[in-house]
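3.2 Worked example (two chains)
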Amino acid sequence: MKIASMIIGILGAVLGIILGITWMSDYFSMQQQINAAGAIAKSLSNSLLQAQMAELSKLYIASFVLTIGGVIAVVATIMINKLKEKTAYVLIAVPVIAAILAPKSLVFTFLMPVAAIMIFVKRKSL
């Protein structure tokens, strides 16, 4: 069970890292257009465009959470013997924080909470 939870946790974390890096690179490649759209939204007082800009800002922050949290989750999962339940808390915290900012991220990070549940079930059954 420990090996399975490690594999699932690492897979979920790596998928989160890939998603975070993809969102980050998309944001940086479109930086000029994003800044122009933000200026237009402010000048026109268009609430729909401003809401979309706010969502884009949350995606940008979520990309950092996914990338940095994913790396921490990989390290914590590899060190599962020493960290024990702390690994499960990390595997739950990263996708929850990312989902608060961008619910779309759960498509890639749903494996991390599954691995955390497996760790808790294993710990309780011993």
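3.2.1 Second chain
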Amino acid sequence: ERAAQVGLGIALAVCVIAAFIAAEGWPRWPLAARWHWLPVLTAAAAVTGGVASLAPKSFTVLVLCAAASGLLGAWTIRLPGVDTMAWRAGLGLTIFVATTLLGWLARTQPSATLPLDLAAVLGAMATLFVAVHFTKMAVLSGCVATLLGAAAAVALFERRVASGAAGVVVAGTLIPTCALIGYSYDYGNVGILGWSLVVATPAAMLAASMFTRKWDARAAAWLTRRGVVVALCAVAIALADFSDNSDY
């Protein structure tokens, strides 16, 4: 089971790297744009997440890996308009919190539900990138959403393909980082509220899980938890302005 969880984290990282290469070509050093650090950060998250998946006390190690991923994100991701110590510290803290919350959810939810929720979040983020006309990031986010949706479908029949520590660290790193990338290249099409709603989904998922934990009607609880994610993503998309602008 742990090997399958490591495999999901690696698959997510490979998906990000492959989508990046398809859109931008092979990276050259020094990196041409500041957001080009995303594949590097994702690969590092897959490695640290793999360590957390294989560790005996995986949740404790997961928290440490979340902190390491947050520190690396704060150090590497420097974007136009948000290249200040406060923004970088905020990104690092958000990665840490999102990863930790998703790690807790991975321990308490059925194997298919977390990848399904994350697929909805990344799918919504891809739509927001369409709104800001950042086509390359829209494709990248859409590819990750598709992979997570496939993982959720497979997990219905094979429980070992669950979003364990490796997948959690990658997803917890991707969501805040992609949102900050989107905001930094957003000239009013989405706004900070729309991106913040997507970033808030891990906290909302945990709150919904705790609220419905003791419900006797399991189907209603399941639908409520999914509904919270869909509602946040839908509001974020509804706030977006899809008027024409230049592509990145």
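3.3 Remarks
The longest helix spans residues 85-108.
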